[in-house]
């Protein structure tokens, strides 16, 4: 089992690379090695380069150019990788969007980023991308629609790379979002490179590693923190997972001899429970599992280590650019749901109390960060950002935290309202605003309710108007409004009036308690 460099010694590269320059350097050293496994197809590094060139030629031919923003909505697949790298190669900026987003979100993102094209993969019949593309075209007639199904007939050839600097924006990603619509995060080549470099060094990733891409590659954790790109950029093998069931995960781990993967706490709990009654899979190849996306308790970490005898790294990070971790295994004397190690050592981390003072050890406050791979602003957004950045440039995470010398940083909860459902961040305001258009809804409040598997379930409270309403009616209505599937409520509670605090604000703590014990909670 490879050791893990768990110490706070600072590390920093002697030089930085753009995404394509480093990837092509790795390809040159590993041409015959397998880069990506997608189903039954094994793609070598040499073939990966050919596909990137083919896709790049196609994108240029249909009119996509350097500096153009391009909405990329493709589930985990080889097509996602080819499209991502090809767009970056020609200097276009992929706007990476959740594969579950629907009309409302996609059209909003196109408007906000002034995207010139929408790239999708029509072969995924379970998701109506072709129908979505038609709606996009109807709304924005000048947007170029591009299905990757049409690229296979493009002739092979070499395409000149755009000469990017490391400080230029490589991709745009979505924030978790607590303002009704996700903020757009500009992520430079340098920011990605530093994540890749530091995790490769800290976690001793090598070309011998085999990575299971179990999480969506549209999320930072699944893509590069540490994820799919970290293994590709060291010459290892990444195995793409689409379904997400234990049977698929464990079959791939056993057959491909997976050594490294990243998952969310929801998946960790499902693995634990599955292994209680099915011990037939050989998981002995795994040496490291990173668990992030939402908080995980120390008992679950312990149970996971006892089931899968490997190093477990619990990851805290923000898409805006910050990562720290805790590392545990069977030899750990104590296990905490805390984050002790910074990935570079150059991060500037503080905890700020309500009065603006810096918190002392074991005092709680908001976690704020500043560092070499943290954004200083959002895309096309410069006003009214006092809630996201301090006056001296620290990014405000919105997380309530405290620091302990032995344990590290502990995340206590959120300062702002947010539902964290299986690692997907949901803004309650977006759901409330949508459902209040329903003729039977007078008022609505969405809250997160603790759940063993999902972390939090999405519970919607409604004060009905004139007529009662069912969970099924709520779901159908929100889907028609174009909300992504993961934002659709899991529970519905009908209520006559809101419980109030002493200062006459809606008591959301009381609502969560009602949701957990209410006989009237209608659940999926």
UniProtKB/TrEMBL annotation:
Top-level taxon: Bacteria
The keyword Ligase is assigned to this record: yes
Cleaved signal peptide residues: none
Coiled-coil region(s): none
Record-linked InterPro entries: AMP-bd_C, AMP-bd_C_sf, AMP-binding_CS, AMP-dep_synth/lig_dom
Domain AMP-binding enzyme C-terminal: 430-505
Alphabetical list of PROSITE patterns matching this protein: AMP_BINDING (PS00455)
Any one Gene Ontology molecular-function term assigned to this protein's record: medium-chain fatty acid-CoA ligase activity
Keywords in alphabetical order: Ligase
Protein's GO biological process: fatty acid metabolic process
Family statement: Belongs to the ATP-dependent AMP-binding enzyme family.
Protein's recorded name: (2,3-dihydroxybenzoyl)adenylate synthase
Species per Swiss-Prot/TrEMBL record: Clostridium niameyense
């Amino acid at each position: 089992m490879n050791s893990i460099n768990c110490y706070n010694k600072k590390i920093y590269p002697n030089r930085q690379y753009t995404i394509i320059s480093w990837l092509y350097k790795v390809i040159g050293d590993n041409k015959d090695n397998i880069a990506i496994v997608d189903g039954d197809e094994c793609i070598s590094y040499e073939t990966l380069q050919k596909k990137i060139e083919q896709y790049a030629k196609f994108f240029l031919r249909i009119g996509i150019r350097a500096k153009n923003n391009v909405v990329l909505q493709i589930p985990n697949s080889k097509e996602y990788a080819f499209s991502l790298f090809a767009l970056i190669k020609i200097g276009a900026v992929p706007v990476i969007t959740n594969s579950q987003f629907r009309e409302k979100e996609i059209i909003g993102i196109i408007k906000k980023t002034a995207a010139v094209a929408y790239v999708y993969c029509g072969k995924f019949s379970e998701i109506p991308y072709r129908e979505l593309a038609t709606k996009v075209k109807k709304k924005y007639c000048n947007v170029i629609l591009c299905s990757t199904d049409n690229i296979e007939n493009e002739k092979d050839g070499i395409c000149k790379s755009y000469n990017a600097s490391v400080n230029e924006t490589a991709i745009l990603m979505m924030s978790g979002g607590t303002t009704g619509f996700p903020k757009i995060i500009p992520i430079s080549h340098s920011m990605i490179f530093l994540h890749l470099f530091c995790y490769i060094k800290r976690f001793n990733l090598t070309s011998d590693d085999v990575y299971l891409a179990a999480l969506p590659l549209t999320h930072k954790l699944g893509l590069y923190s540490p994820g799919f790109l970290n293994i590709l950029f060291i010459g290892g093998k990444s195995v793409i997972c689409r379904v997400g069931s234990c049977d698929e995960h464990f079959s791939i781990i056993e057959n491909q001899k997976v050594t490294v993967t990243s998952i969310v706490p929801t998946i960790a709990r499902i693995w634990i429970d599955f292994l209680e009654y099915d011990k037939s899979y050989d998981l002995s190849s795994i040496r490291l599992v990173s668990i992030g996306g939402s908080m995980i308790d120390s008992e679950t970490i312990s149970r996971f280590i006892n089931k899968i005898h490997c190093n477990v790294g619990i990851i805290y990070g923000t898409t805006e650019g910050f990562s720290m971790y805790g590392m545990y295994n069977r030899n750990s004397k104590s296990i905490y749901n805390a984050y002790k190690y910074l990935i570079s050592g150059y991060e500037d981390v503080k905890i700020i109390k309500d009065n603006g003072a810096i918190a002392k050890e074991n005092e709680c406050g908001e976690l704020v960060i500043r560092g070499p791979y943290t954004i200083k602003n959002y895309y096309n957004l410069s006003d009214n950002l006092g809630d996201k950045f301090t006056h001296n440039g620290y990014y405000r995470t919105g997380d309530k935290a405290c620091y302990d010398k032995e344990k590290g940083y502990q995340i206590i909860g959120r300062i702002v309202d947010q539902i964290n459902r299986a690692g997907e961040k949901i803004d309650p305001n977006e759901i409330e605003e949508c459902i209040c258009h329903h003729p039977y809804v007078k008022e609505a409040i969405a809250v997160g309710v603790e759940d063993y598997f999902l972390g939090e379930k999405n519970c919607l409270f409604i004060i009905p108007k004139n007529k009662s309403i069912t969970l099924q009616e709520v779901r159908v209505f929100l889907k028609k409004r174009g909300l992504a599937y993961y934002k659709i409520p899991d529970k519905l509670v009908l209520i006559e009036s809101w419980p109030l605090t002493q200062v006459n604000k809606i008591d959301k703590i009381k609502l969560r308690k009602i949701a957990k014990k209410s006989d009237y909670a209608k659940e999926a």
